[in-house]
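haha ok so turns out i had the wrong file open the whole time. this is the CORRECT one, sorry everyone. sequence first:
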Amino acid sequence: MEVILKEDVSNLGLKDDIVKVKNGFGRNYLIPRGFAILATVSAKKIHAENQKQRAHKLEKIKNEALDFAKKMEGVSITIGAKSSTSGKIFGSVNTIQIAEALAKEGFEVDRKNVSIKQDQVKELGKYTATVKLHREVKVDIEFVVVAE
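then structure:
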């Protein structure tokens, strides 16, 4: 059975993808919950037309994200944290602090789009975070954790 996804479904596909699924999964889960619609011939034609119209808008959004990414490249931020004499931080540095530090530098990003490459930052030092600006555009930001 082919369905057109109306929302992102983990381990299946992204919004507007046409995917093949088992009949029961499509009929009993995806379609009743509004995650997908049946991919009939007419639904595929409507989907193709919507994709054509939306392509220009999506390209513009992607180009804006690329321009923003070029501005953010090379930015290094400093985050102050209370620490012990051995260099351990009381608590940890999280994405909220990174988003706030980027906002001070003039880059407004949502904390949900920031991810830290290490599991937890619990010591002073230099680390890397990834900022997702678009589905296809990501920027690596270096940040330094220093003692307050």
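Residues 11 and 19 are 11 Å apart (CA to CA).
again sry for the mixup
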